[in-house]
Amino acid sequence: MSPEAAPEPYHSNVRPPHSDLSRVAVGQPPQDLEAEQSVLGAMLLSAQAIADVVETLDAADYYRPAHETVHRAICELHDQGQSADPITVAHHLGKRGDLARVGGAPYLHTLVESVPTAANAEYYAEIVREKAERRRLIEAGTRLVQAASAPNADPHQLRAALLTQITELTARPTEPATEDAAPAGPPNPLYDRRPGLHRPHRPGPTPHPDVFCGWLGETVRELDPTTEADPIAVLANLLSAAGAIIGRRPHLMVGNDRHPSLIWALTIGPTSSGRKGSATSTARRVLAEALPDCFGPDHTPRGLNSGEGLIEYVKDDTGEMAAPASIDKRLWVVESEYAVTMSRGRREGSSLPGVLRQAWDGDSLGSMVRDSLKATDPHIAILGHITPEEFRAKMQDSEMAGGTYNRFLPIFCHRNLILPGSRGASVELITNLAASWRTVLADAARIDEVQFSDSAWELYCDQVYPALSDDSAGGVITQFTARAAPYVQRVAMVYALCDHTATISAAHLRAAWQLLNYARASAVHLLGGTTGDPKVNKLAEAVRTAGPDGLTADRIRRLFKNTTRPERDRLVAQLLDLPGYTRFQKPTGGRPTTVVKYAG
User: Fold this and answer.
1) Closest C-alpha to 443, from 249, 289, 218
2) CA–CA dist 150, 164 (Å, integer)
3) Is 181 helix (H, G, I), strand (E, B) or coil?
4) What is the pTM of this model?
């Protein structure tokens, strides 16, 4: 590529590609302009190159600020599932007012022309990252020289600064990572990034791999490559629908209470990227193929207008014209606009909340308005779709304290794959899965009381129950997950029933426990980590507002200027106990500063 091929501000001191540091002009920091251009050109040509580069290179590693801006724009489009080519990136930068600053649309086309081959994107990225590491080393040494040259420099402080700088540099990972990166969790093939998979950025919590247990987990894994839906949302749909189809006969005893196989969930995700409907259609397609009679309008109604309306579907009716649901009483209610349902339930005099509470318990339903409207032994599972904004707006303390919405598992969901050309699962896959599910559900419906294995019961008593019964944090989140201890048994029961057994194993219980943990993490993520302590809530809001840069210790001190340091430390410690909040050391010109960040 000739030096004249791009705007002047970006082509001074251009060298032959990938030249050695010895060829850099005296006084010029280590850099490789053509390697940077080749990286960006490859990303503009290939979505696979984008995936390879982001695993190797951070946007801040570019020497040219304009290249950092282009890199971020490409990644933003890629994470949104949009094409990232010179035209779309130019449009994206133009909307933000950055197009002229990076050299205009012609420069983006020049980047494409400059790359020898997109297949070498990762190699080019390694060159750029190596130059960035060299610049950081030089910058660190320069800061120390400047500090030592100051006339009034304190030797003791200089030694401390030197040790801090050395510690920071020697602790820097050899593989690309940010200083504030959260510790990696266990490997999770359904969410981990790897070559050949295009996963957008996930803004919220990620479920533990243990939730994808047994036949339920196997079904999710089989369907995952065919849909952009979040695997955890597909799992929630399968649990809820399967529990409804299995029916009322299988149950477990929690104390003196009889618990049926009813799982209620709210899948909560943005309208554009939540893929809530895709998760439902993915699960429904398999189960409807297995048992089509259970997925007709008689068993899958929509529109929860009132308590009386829900009872109407499963009311006692022995007449010749009785609806099928009036005979077997099984319903799987999917509400795609659950915010509307929540609004209806808040109306003065609404019977809906009370009827919902009875339905979750598996109690017989009746209406105080119409004595003749009764439903004996109903079996109703509900799954709702709602956006995070609607969820936060509609959710009120009085509703949670009333016990209606702590019967739902809040499940945060987000687009997990980018599949622009997907046509869904093949007919053969759906047919094979449906055949197995037909047998699974028929066998499960014949089981009576479900029991725990010895190892599962020991796990429940020693670890699960104490963890899920801990309400020391108080506040909204605890209210929302108040039924976690009995709920984990319900979920474990459905896992077991779907594995052709009437005995809950330790693996089933661990899967249910991790699902309940994910539901709590979802509630914290969506409700902002509300704790019941106004000061912790204030700190949580400030940290989230600070965005990716986080909140420094100095800003926390100013936020609570009339508070002692031990009290501030207590607030930070309580905040860090909540899912999604992390603390890290951020390097500065001198002593590193502590930063608290919300990582989601």
Assistant:
1) 249
2) 19
3) coil
4) 0.62
Shortest CA distance to 276 belongs to which of 382, 389, 414?
A: 414
- Does an H or E element contain 16, and which? none
Based on the number of CB atoms within 10 Å of its own CB, is 588 exposed (0-12), middle (13-18) or buried (19 or more)? exposed
Q: What are phi and psi of 42, to 5 degrees?
A: -65, -40
CA–CA separation, 574 vs 543, rounded Å?
Answer: 13
316: three-class secondary structure by DSSP: coil
What distance in Å separates the CA atoms of residue 233 and residue 239, rounded to the nearest whole number?
10
Contact 378, 326 (CB under 8 A): no
Strands 593-598 and 365-366: unpaired
Other beta carbons less than 10 A from residue 455's beta carbon: 13
Strands (E), 213-313: 251-254, 257-260, 265-268
Q: Nearest-CA neighbor of 379 among 363, 393, 395? A: 363
Tens-level pLDDT at each residue, the chain (600 residues): 333 343 333 333 333 333 333 333 445 788 999 999 999 999 999 888 888 888 778 888 888 888 988 998 898 888 777 889 999 999 988 887 889 888 899 999 999 998 888 888 888 988 998 898 888 788 777 777 777 777 777 776 666 666 555 544 544 433 333 333 333 446 778 888 776 778 888 878 889 999 999 999 999 999 999 999 999 999 999 999 999 999 999 999 999 999 999 999 999 998 878 899 999 999 999 999 999 988 877 778 877 778 888 888 888 876 666 666 667 789 999 998 887 877 777 776 678 888 888 888 888 888 766 666 888 999 999 999 999 888 877 665 445 445 677 789 999 999 999 888 788 999 999 999 999 999 999 999 999 999 999 999 999 999 999 888 765 545 556 666 678 889 999 999 999 999 999 999 999 999 999 999 999 888 877 876 555 566 777 788 788 778 778 888 888 888 887 778 778 888 888 777 665 678 888 776 666 778 888 765
Per-residue HEC secondary structure of 139-175 comes to HHHHHHHHHHHCCCCCHHHHHHHHHHHHHHHHHCCCC
480 is written with which tokens? Answer: 């929302």
